[in-house]
Design a protein that fits this description.
This protein is mainly β. Helices cover 0% and strands 44% of the residues. The protein has no helices and 23 strands. The strands form five sheets. Strands 10, 16, 17, 20, 21 and 23 form a six-stranded mixed beta sheet that branches. Strands 11, 14, 15, 18, 19 and 22 form a six-stranded antiparallel beta sheet that branches. Strands 2-1-5-8-9 form a five-stranded antiparallel beta sheet, with no helix packed on it. A hairpin with a 7-residue loop joins strand 1 and strand 2. It is elongated, with a radius of gyration of 30 Å.
């Protein structure tokens, strides 16, 4: 959805709104996209444009209809990988000195992600019939939010909640040396500490043997018994992979120090 103003040479002067959340459609890879509302270039006019994907826009009249804040939209799909819909924003300006009678250059929007993408990967040192299962992965202290365009800052919107990620099962060094990941979640960047919680189970075949002796998330040690603080701040436009590295400790091994020897006895003569 596109917003835009023109200023400088139109009748009455000043700044006028020419696009007000009008839909722009096209094909990825095609340089030309068209708007549902047709507007023509005015020679000598200065232009400001903004484009928004998947956000609720606040555009007060004092800003000539241009967006000032964006609010996240909940993903109401029954299935899917995202906790929120993706949220994109772009700006563009065109200098009036460049706008001539035959000006025909498309407005170039270079979008930026306003959310952070997060998923979890589980690795395991278990071998043979042993494997790990990680369940109940939750990120706490998460809240939907409002993004202020001037300054590029996020503010929490509502009480923090827990976001639940998909479980990750049957990971071992035999079948998952590079790790097994769950689906991505799109979260509002949070500069404050947030908390992660998960449970780790160790299986031999289909029998649960217990909880792993050691798990790691980034550089912080976890037991899986309670939520722990993660020191990494989420930053907009960054994709994060948090690794839960599971270990079964050391296998039972045996050592043979020497072979048994025969005792030498006197020769026995049979007559």
């Amino acid at each position: 959805y596109v917003y835009g103003t023109a200023s400088g040479t139109m009748q009455g002067g000043g700044t006028v709104n020419i696009f007000d959340g009008d839909e722009v459609t096209g094909t990825v890879g095609n340089d030309i996209w068209n708007c549902t509302e047709t507007q023509y270039w005015i020679p000598g006019a200065d232009y400001n444009f903004a484009a928004v994907v998947d956000a609720t826009v606040e555009a007060p009249a004092s800003n000539n209809g241009m967006p000032t804040t964006l609010t996240t939209i909940a993903d109401d799909a029954t299935t899917g990988n995202m906790h929120l819909k993706d949220m994109l924003y772009a700006e563009a300006t065109v200098d009036g000195d460049d706008v001539t009678v035959d000006y025909d250059t498309p407005v170039n929007f270079t979008f930026q992600h306003l959310l952070s993408k997060v998923h979890f990967t589980v690795t395991s040192t278990a071998q043979g019939d042993y494997s790990h299962e990680v369940t109940g992965i939750k990120v706490y202290n998460y809240a939907e939010g409002t993004y202020t365009i001037n300054g590029g800052t996020w503010n929490g919107n509502g009480d923090p909640v827990a976001v639940t990620f998909a479980d990750i099962a049957e990971v071992s060094s035999t079948n998952g040396t590079t790790g097994v990941s769950n689906a991505d979640m799109l979260l509002v960047p949070n500069a404050a500490d947030f908390k992660v919680e998960f449970t780790v189970n160790l299986y031999k075949s289909t029998t649960k043997e217990g909880v792993t002796t050691k798990t790691l998330l980034s550089t912080t040690s976890y037991t899986g018994d309670s939520a722990k603080t993660v020191s990494t701040d989420l930053v907009k436009g960054n994709a994060y992979n948090f690794t839960i590295a599971c270990s079964v400790g050391n296998p039972i091994q045996f050592s043979v120090t020497n072979d048994p020897t025969w005792s030498t006895q006197p020769d026995v003569t049979i007559q």
